[in-house]
Specification:
The chain is mostly beta strands. The chain has 12 helices and 26 strands. This is Type V secretory pathway, adhesin AidA.
Amino acid sequence: MTKTKQTWRLAKLPLAVSLASTLAAPAFGVTFNIGEIEGQFDSSLSVGASWSVRGADPDLIGSNNGGDGLSQTTDDSRQNFKRGETFSKIFKGIHDLELKYGDTGVFVRGKYWYDFELKDESRIFKDISDSNRKEGAQASGAQILDAFVYHNYDIAGQPGSVRLGKQVVSWGESTFIRNSINEINPVDVSAFRRPGAEIKEGLIPVNMFYVSQSLTENLSAEAFYQLEWDQTVVDNCGTFFAQPDIIADGCTDNLRVLSNNPLAGAGVNNALRNLNLLSGGLLQNRPDLVIDQNSEGVLVRRTGDRDARDSGQFGTALRYFSPELDTEFGAYFMNYHSRTPAFSAAGPAANVYSTAKAALTGTNAQLQPLVVAGNSNYFLEYPEDIQLYGLSFSTTLPTGTAMSGELSYRPNAPVLLNTTDILFAGVNPLGGLFGNASLIDGQPGQEVNGYKRKEITQFQTTFTHFLDRVMGASRLTLVGEIGIVHVGGLESSDQVRYGRDPIYGPGPLPATGTINTCSALNGSTLGTASKENQTKYCEDDGFVTNTAWGYRARAIWDYPDVFAGVNLKPSVSWSHDVDGYGPNGLFTEGAKAVSLGLDAEYQNTYTASLAYTDFFGGKYNTSIDRDFVALSFGMNF
């Protein structure tokens, strides 16, 4: 098959993609011709398994489920998989087909997978279901990923390329740190969790029109217009990495709140009957008042998600290479809709509050939130029309070190509010004991949107250096990235709070009622939590800060032909969130992770990979008990 220059294949990718490519064995594929049509078919098959290697932290299991945590929304995975248990046993394949006629072609990529552990095995706490889940989050399935046509051309001697269809476009210079310029495509998080995952499996192609055009020898322009919106695929509830349990599509009955109250421990009918006895019958014959409670708490129902619209997503980029500076510069603008959701909620109508207050008085007043929670609802929404402005550079220092970086600015980025404040906003209208249960002033029937728009500025820079013949290796690759983010216009945390997992409960509250302090609220609504945890997190910490920063590093050693033609690539990766709490989980102060890996390759066809990852550090780090080992074997042809 004759190879010709394909502009779309040469589009600059983030270094993270390039690094991943160095660890994967190249696949030569099968080339063929059908008349004047040139074709290539590439395939990758793999099997793999992953194991949990640390027991669950009791502080991250809700008190209603036997732990010491202050919420039940992030613990299904911890109860489903114990230390030493397998949480994935998977077979998967991915295939690429390209057909080319002259300068015009079509590219199609598809994948399929079957996870025997998640699909066929039962779980000790909650079985894992594929019902109504996003296709990528299911335990088994098949998907068409890329599917686009392209045409390469020249205008006045300057090359250009156009593509139409489902595709991935990567901009910017981000390597490891997210929330970067590279926001055009959503991510399939579930795919990246699977042992033996490749970059191309986890980037979700989206239908769009894309054009890249050289304007001069050193100046080029790019533009895209998306024809549809798609969301990031998060982990299915109950799977090993899932947190929280209430976000994935189809996970509609997992938001259970408040105390495991013995008055309502036997389901809807008993809950209403017991409350009715206490209220002297005032709740009788009220079909509009619904309470669904089990051992985990009262169910807050999930209503329909509010997806973003398909139209209105576009962007443009300019790239200039300066021969004098030996540096490429980039400038970017895009308007896009969030690929990740905001958690929002709505309290019940005013009559629910009045009935609850009239029916439950005296010592029984503490049961009023049961009625409110059981008649509230939550929904996920995806903020639209986020604007992004970006600048980037890429150069080589005199030492031979590659240096790149980017600056991004979003004047109207959504920053997620504290989920606990959102939920307890529905309790505030009860007044009295619960009059200040949240910093958010909820009103009967009012929706509380789970985000506010803020200015977010982020800078990150990457250094890459190659050392030959070091430690017996033919080459040592060192990569490091540092990033810092600033949120403009952030209110004082005694007015509005952003971020922090609900497992840690509310922060400080105005002490204007008998149970309106943080510890008293925890004691009244989750009395089974440990006394230490009822007060431990009642502090102004763990919420989004004005500024946060961290860094990532990776080292990869190349040992070719170690034995019998087998090439080995040991690696070590390090992550450290140094200071502050970034918006939407970007940085968590003190959180660290280290990963040790070994990749093997034989004859550019057969591969094996073994990796161990340890998460630790950070008082508000919900990943500290998610340590795991992954092993995979693959074949590329």
